[in-house]
Design goal:
The complex is a heterodimer of chains A (102) and B (300).
Chain A: H1 2-23, E1 27-34, H2 39-50, E2 55-61, E3 66-71, H3 79-88, E4 92-99
Antiparallel strand pairs in A: 1-3, 1-4, 2-3
Chain B: H1 3-18, E1 44-55, E2 64-78, E3 83-98, E4 103-108, E5 111-117, E6 120-124, E7 127-139, E8 165-176, E9 179-189, E10 192-193, E11 196-197, E12 201-213, E13 223-236, E14 240-241, E15 244-245, E16 251-264, E17 267-281, E18 288-299
Antiparallel strand pairs in B: 1-2, 1-18, 2-3, 3-4, 3-5, 5-7, 6-7, 7-8, 8-9, 9-12, 10-11, 11-14, 12-13, 13-16, 14-15, 16-17, 17-18
Classes of the chains: A alpha+beta (102), B mainly beta (300).
């Protein structure tokens, strides 16, 4: 009986966690970068941002220097880490906007 | 110094000039020399270049012409966003056409290691301006003792030089979304190997790359197509053989290289042809006919 009780509780917690994960709204960010002037260089920035983890989708607009990120709902990016990633690629962060972040 | 050894020694000068632009890094544009564009920290860039060239053929007796090809591998690694290290390893194939049996050799040439550091950068929206000095060493890892049926091959035909040589300079890069300009000043200091000391060399190179496609930039872009025009001016002092100056070596060369380059997110493909504009070479040094450079670069 005790074992069954524990099993039910574990199952409920697991289902709640899973439910939170799949129903969590993904957050999106806009990252403004100076210095990008060709696709080959932009790829270097994308690799550095990808190392932050949780990136679902990344689209770089080379013409405007804006990188649009969509991340998992459980992930929150902060400007400091994003700035570090952009600088590691050899470029400069000039703006950081978070959308739909709880 | 007899005419036979003079001919062979002028070959060495041409081959030295041909390989003067072997030392290239792995980043995007230019095609025949370095750029100051960054390699991201803890990331690699790889470049593979195929070069083939020949001297102008001198008809009559003695007929002489040099043909040479190389496959050059370059690996760059970003230690930091500003400091990058490179290793360059060529595989060469050289041929000397003379009256009588032709002579040839192939194999791994000397490896070069160099570092590049960005001392100044100004990132702007859609543009970047950078200044980066570089410093390197060429190590005598290539074979310098190749033989054929006649005997030991002349120094200029050997895959390796037998000498440790130093090189360095500074690169300036200004890149915009529409075009890019690179320039490089470079000095090569050659030491003695196998009783041969090539003349020290200074060169000044510029490259202009203009984007011709796409005409208008949309948010989704697969790649850029550039037309490229490069120019190299070099001055090289005379070689010395066993301490004696070789009058059939050294001089001034001015080469131009029209080319084309396609740049995507992960790779770059490029092709150019170096042609002589003006060569004022000492003595019987053979002049350049052409050098074709083709290559790929990968971000990984």
């Amino acid at each position: 009986m005790k074992i069954l009780k524990r099993l039910v509780i574990s199952l409920v917690i697991t289902m709640w966690l899973f439910s939170s994960e799949i129903h969590a709204k993904p957050a999106s960010y806009e990252v403004f970068v100076d210095g990008i002037a060709c696709p080959f260089c932009a790829y270097g920035i994308e690799k550095q941002l990808d190392k932050l983890g949780g990136i679902r989708e990344m689209r770089t607009d080379v013409a405007s220097g804006v990188i649009r990120l969509t991340v998992d709902g459980s992930v929150t990016l902060n400007e400091k880490d994003v700035r570090k990633a952009v600088e590691n690629a050899g470029f400069s962060l000039t703006g950081f906007i978070a959308h739909d972040v709880k | 110094m007899n005419s036979g050894s003079s001919v062979l020694r002028s070959r060495a000068s041409f081959i030295a000039a041909l390989w003067g632009c072997v030392l290239i890094d792995a980043q995007a544009a230019p095609i025949t020399f370095n750029t100051a564009l960054p390699v991201a920290a803890e990331e690699f860039v790889f470049r593979l270049q195929i070069k083939t060239g020949e001297t102008k053929e001198e008809r009559g007796l003695p007929r002489r012409q040099v043909k040479a090809s190389a496959v050059v591998s370059v690996l760059g690694y970003g230690l930091t966003p500003d400091l990058t290290v490179f290793a360059v390893l060529p595989y060469v194939d050289k041929r000397l056409d003379l009256v009588g049996p032709n002579r040839k050799a192939s194999g791994l040439a000397d490896i070069s290691l160099f570092t590049r550091y960005t001392v100044y950068k100004n990132n702007m929206r859609g543009k970047t301006f950078r200044v980066a000095p570089f410093l390197g060493i060429k190590l005598p890892t290539g074979s310098d003792d190749e033989k054929d049926g006649i005997g030991k091959l002349p120094v200029g035909l050997q895959p390796g030089s037998g000498s440790e040589d130093l090189f360095g300079g500074v690169i300036l890069t200004y890149q915009t979304l529409a075009w890019q300009f690179d320039s490089e000043v470079r000095v090569d200091v050659f030491n003695e190997g196998n009783d041969v000391e090539k003349g020290n060399k200074i060169s000044f190179s510029v490259s202009f790359q203009y984007r011709v496609w796409p005409e208008d930039l949309q948010e989704e872009v697969s790649g850029f197509l550039y037309l490229v025009l490069e120019s190299e001016f070099s001055h090289q002092r005379k070689d010395r053989f066993s301490g004696v100056s070789n009058n059939d070596s050294g001089g001034n060369r001015w080469l131009i290289a029209p080319g084309i380059q396609y740049v995507t997110w992960r790779w770059v493909a490029e092709l150019s042809v170096q042609l002589p504009v003006n060569e004022r070479l000492n003595g019987k040094t053979l002049e350049t006919n052409y050098v074709i450079n083709g290559g790929f670069r990968w971000n990984f």
